[in-house]
Amino acid sequence: MSETLERWGSKRAFILAVTGAAVGLGNIWRFPYVAGENGGAAFLLIYVAFVLLLGIPVMMAEILIGRAGRRGPMQALGVLASEAGASRHWRWLGLFGAFTVFCILSFYSVVSGWSIEFLVASVNGNFNGASAAEIGAGFEAFLANPGLLIFNHSLFLFMTMTVVAAGVAKGLERLNNLLMPLLYGLLLLLAIYATTTSGFGTALSWLFLPSFEDVTAEVVLHAMGHAFFTLAVGACALMAYGAYMPDEQSLPKAAFAVAVLDISVALLAGIAIFSVVFAQGMDPADGPGLMFVTLPIAFSELPWGSFWLSVFFLLLLLATWTSAINLAEPMVATLQGLGWRRSTATAAVALSVWLIGLLSAFSFSTLAEFRPLFGRNVFELVSSIPPDIFLPMGGLLIAIFAAWVMPQARVISALDAGERGYLLWRTTIRWVSIPLTFIVLLGGLL
Ligand code: PHE
């Protein structure tokens, strides 16, 4: 591949594309249940601090590498490393990123499939008049049916890979333009509705009044992993998008805009979901089913409930779709850079993700007790280790590469933030982001 890659049509299109990658299951499904398992407000506070101190600077590092290299991640890293007189082995970082997104996409596609099922169920009015207990039991029964999970996983992956095959810049632009404002608006409505529920007060204090007694090294590690996951940083996925970035665009502004949007989506979702959790006397640490059980309960009590629930699942599905496309892109871009045709690369990625995804789909029934590592089954492994460990590791190396290895003149031009912006970024990433990521990773692993 040469320097004649496709480009996003405008600055706005780039910001929307990165927001599309960032906003997804991470905000609406993963944030509430991980926060629920890790104590609520203290987790939220630490995660937001990590977004500011690590997420944003590393996001800039990652995108600027792609922008300076204008190639698939592996090739961009290789070329920039040679240019700097550093080892070409840096390119393996691109492969590590591809491996990380591979693991993530394998469970992401399965969970996104749940949204398809729930979309269909809400269009059919299946939640009408159902009690909270019935909705909970229905979800359990659904998870115990691997055939249904596999069908939806296959459908979702097919939807994703079709867009990837067409080339993301063109395929995504139109979708993102419409989707983000709609999703945001609906979440806002939900949060407003939440103020009328009896659980609202408890939800607010649970989310915003931190108590630090229960904060362990593990909670801090989860918060850091989630900051990387929700921003889509650390797997060279945004690096692949940076390669299509327009020439004139300030990177810090784009990164801040995305982070603010991303956090606010998570907060709106958190307020809506935890209000229902507390109004219904449910347990916040209920795990991956949290959103799928609470929201149908909330909507079933609203006028036009089925309609709004259908709209919600449709928007969620579209949001996860744009994230999944970003997850697939670095793998396809990497294979393409190795000389594969885009269509062949897409097919190979689709098939292998589908196969590994089956293990996650079966993790709720047949393979529930198959626990190959750390006493966790496959779904539990792929939904925790790659986000909590691989993304921060990848992010750390990306940061080191941009802050210490790349020729700084290249960094300055790709960052497009002026002299002061550059110095601020460099100081933060060198003396805060890199050491902090390292310490938290080490502390969490030990
Ligand atoms: N940020 C996405 C989400 O929150 C997930 C993702 C992670 C996408 C890593 C790309 C890379 O759903």
Defining key terms:
binds phenylalanine; 446 residues; mainly alpha; Amino acid/polyamine transporter I; 77% helix
Characterization of this structure:
This is Transporter. InterPro entries: Na/ntran_symport (IPR000175), SNS_sf (IPR037272), YocR/YhdH-like (IPR047218). It is found in: Membrane. The chain has one domain (11-445): Amino acid/polyamine transporter I. The termini are far apart. With 446 residues, it is mainly alpha-helical. The protein is built from 19 helices and no strands. Residues 21-22, 24-27, 101, 104, 229-230, 232, 235, 237, 323, 326-327 line the site of phenylalanine.
Q: Tell me, what is the CATH class? A: Mainly Alpha
Structural class: mainly alpha
Number of helices, counting only DSSP H or I runs of 4 residues or more = 19
β-strand amount: under 5%
Report the CATH architecture: Up-down Bundle
Output the helix-strand order: HHHHHHHHHHHHHHHHHHH
Please give the domain count: 1
Can you say what the CATH homologous superfamily is?
Amino acid/polyamine transporter I
The hetero compounds bound to this protein are:
phenylalanine
Structural shape: globular
Alpha-carbon Rg, integer: 21 Å
Summarize the amount of helix as a percent range.
over 70%
- DSSP strand tally: 0
- Biggest beta-sheet profile: none
* Distance between the ends: 42 Å
